[in-house]
Amino acid sequence: MGLFEKKTLVDDVEAVPSEKYTNEADSGDFVPDEGAVHAETFVVGDGWVAKAQRLAGKFGVEQRGIERVPSDERTNDGMSQIGTLWLSANMVVSSFAIGALAYPIFYLGFIDTILIIFFVNLIGITPVCFFSTFGPRFGLRQMVLSRFYFGWYGVKIIAVFNILACIGWSSVNVIVGAQLFNAVNHNMPGWAGILVIAISTLIITAFGYKIVHTYERWSWIPCFIIFMIILGEFAKSGHFQNIPMGVGKSEAGAALSFAASVYGFATGWTSYAADYTVYQPVGRSRKSIFLWTFAGLSFPLLFTQMLGAAVATAMSIDDGKNAYMNGYESSGIGGLLAAVIVPPLGKFGQFCLVILALSIIANNCPNIYSVSLTLQLLARATAKVPRFLWTLVGTIIYIAIAIPGYDHFESILENFMLVIGYWLAIYEGISLSEHIFFKRGFSGYNPADYTTPSKLPPGFAAILAFCIGAMGAILGMAQVWFTGPIGKLCGAKYGGDVGFELAFSFSAISFCFLRYFEKKHFGR
Fold first, then answer.
1. Which member of 96, 263, 311, 480 lies 3.0 to 4.6 Å from 304 by CB, making a disulfide possible if both were Cys?
2. What is the model's pLDDT at position 247?
3. Within the chain, how many helices (H) and strands (E) appear?
4. Burial of 19: CB neighbours in 10 Å, binned 0-12, 13-18, 19+
């Protein structure tokens, strides 16, 4: 049977649409398929890449990487899978930990913590929801889409930051999961917990888009049940403390710094957003995509972080001389959770902690799936390496970081990730400015140009604006390693973090000015 006969399509789980779709967007505009790559082409040839693709297809592994998805290979999967993907990715202990840090790190009251969590999360997830609507429209991954903002060469700098973010946060997350295992069984070494979570994540992400969506569709359920058990047991304990709101410069600085942590976690998915909607039909309603993404992100983020903030108030009992503070100091967030559910529930409480440790898999799946796509973007040579091999490479790298990091430099790694997180505000400032003021909406894109450097923006304005945005972040940051001059003015002793705000505004304003002259000179 020839390579181009129908049967070869079933080898790739993404290649078989449930029904045919037109390439007409919900606005009625025609979206051409030029530049799209059909599934048959991945298995053509006698080289090692084609052989690896054919072998992968036999096991149902997604063969597509950063190539544009044609409209006739989109699937009829419901939009609810978009919501459940983000629901599972955020119904995790990592999100709980963000809320729990409000008291021991920032010394905030309960009401101010809840207000920050609510409003800042809603702001942070808005860019994720917006860029998710681009996937069905153009069939392009988020980093590939970024070529229309940063140019063919400039986007490679953005790709490096995205790779650092994917690998770095995967390492931090897997360490948190391993700590939970250790809180249950002190004889379990950190490296063992890291390997369990990392290998499980690798298996899911190697199979690709469809399996990631399938896993994330259901994995939130046991985690939600366990968080409800935690809520019930903590409420029954009567240990909640309504810590009063502070006043003055110290409170303002702490609130700004905590808001930066919340925003960074919520908006961190922006650079992956379109990756998980590219197989949706072109005609999908942008409003529906936006709202499903919004629902999938907002509920778990608000629920878990507010729960974490509530549980953390118990650490203030007896001036910190209590089981909750002892658990937190000995085993971090895992110890805090253990103090809530292990004493009343015993072995079942320990079982719940194990399930929460495994929830890190759902959190890391988008990281590792998307890092494989970003690695393909670095050069034409890396684009030829199949996506599923890059998932293996990414997994090996973050395991190599996480195992020594578990005992020696976890806090250094986490502080480093918080510092580079400002790049997302810069990315959003430039991308949104280009879309609104220069592309003037979706009609300003020709998706077929994504492989033609001469038809993309030169990228000079974007890169210079990125550097100016980085300067804004440095001026406004308030981190363990460094507090900028403006950051020092926004609080008391430790300042207040306004790095995200300044990074976004500096990059957006400078980009609009620079891009005007760039487009006038180059005509693109």
1. 96
2. 83
3. 22, 0
4. exposed
For residue 66, give the nearest of 370, 286, 432 by alpha carbon: 370
Distances (CA, A) of 138 to 144, 181, 309, 444: 11, 42, 40, 12
Cα end-to-end span (Å), the chain? 46
Here the tokens at position 48 are: 């090692």
DSSP assignment of 301-336: HHHHHHHHHHHHGGGGGGGG-SHHHHHHHHHHHHHH
CA atoms within 13 A on the CB side of 510: 21
- Average pLDDT on 236-262 reads 91
The answer to whether 360 and 94 have CB atoms below 8 angstroms apart is yes
The residues that bridge with 36 in the sheet, in sequence order, are 68
For residue 520, give the nearest of 450, 470, 457, 436 by alpha carbon. Answer: 457
The residues near 447 (Cβ < 8 Å, ≥ 6 apart) are 31, 32, 34, 35, 68, 138, 139, 140
Q: What is the largest CA-CA distance in the chain?
A: 76
Angle at 327 between CA 325 and CA 330, to 5 degrees: 105
pTM beyond 0.70: the answer is yes
Specify the 3-state DSSP secondary structure of 36.
Answer: strand
Contacting residues for 358 by C-beta, under 8 A, at least 6 apart: 177, 196, 197, 200
**Two structure tokens written together for 130:** 């917006």
The Cα–Cα gap between 189 and 193 comes to 7
Q: Residue 360: what pLDDT?
A: 92
5: three-class secondary structure by DSSP: coil
Residue 409: pLDDT band with limits 50, 70, 90? low
CA proximity to 69, closest of 49, 109, 42, 45:
42
User: CB neighbours of 127 closer than 8 A, spacing ≥ 6?
Assistant: 267, 270, 273, 428, 432
